[in-house]
């Protein structure tokens, strides 16, 4: 049995953790990290390689949907429907292009 963690001074535990972390990198435990990552969806692959103008437009649209349109929830009538549809569209786009490992 080892010494209980509470009996070891904090600075010693931190040094031991750092040594273990450095040793793990030396042994190559992180080798192949990118290889084991899940593959992106086909739309995610295309979105990643889209021109910078498309990325900037998508970012601007994201801010409109997440910052400006939520104010429409307080406006009666079609404005709240536009907000709901835009939010649902954004969720679908994120699900179609995201990589969540499933």
UniProtKB/TrEMBL annotation:
<keyword id="KW-1133">Transmembrane helix</keyword>
<keyword id="KW-0472">Membrane</keyword>
<feature type="transmembrane region" description="Helical">
    <location>
        <begin position="57"/>
        <end position="75"/>
    </location>
</feature>
<dbReference type="GO" id="GO:0051604">
    <property type="term" value="P:protein maturation"/>
</dbReference>
<dbReference type="InterPro" id="IPR057434">
    <property type="entry name" value="LMF1/2_N"/>
</dbReference>
<keyword id="KW-0812">Transmembrane</keyword>
<dbReference type="Pfam" id="PF06762">
    <property type="entry name" value="LMF1"/>
</dbReference>
<protein>
    <submittedName>
        <fullName>Lipase maturation factor family protein</fullName>
    </submittedName>
</protein>
<feature type="transmembrane region" description="Helical">
    <location>
        <begin position="81"/>
        <end position="101"/>
    </location>
</feature>
<dbReference type="InterPro" id="IPR009613">
    <property type="entry name" value="LMF"/>
</dbReference>
<feature type="domain" description="Lipase maturation factor 1/2 N-terminal">
    <location>
        <begin position="36"/>
        <end position="102"/>
    </location>
</feature>
């Amino acid at each position: 049995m080892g010494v209980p963690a509470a009996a070891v001074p904090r600075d010693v535990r931190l040094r031991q953790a750092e040594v273990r972390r450095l040793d793990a990198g030396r042994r190559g435990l992180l080798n192949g990290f990118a290889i084991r990552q899940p593959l992106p969806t086909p739309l995610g692959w295309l979105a990643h390689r889209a021109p910078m103008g498309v990325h900037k437009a998508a970012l601007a649209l994201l801010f409109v949907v997440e910052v400006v349109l939520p104010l429409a929830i307080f406006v009666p009538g079609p404005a709240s429907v536009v907000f709901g549809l835009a939010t649902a569209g954004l969720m679908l786009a994120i699900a179609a292009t995201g990589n969540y490992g499933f």
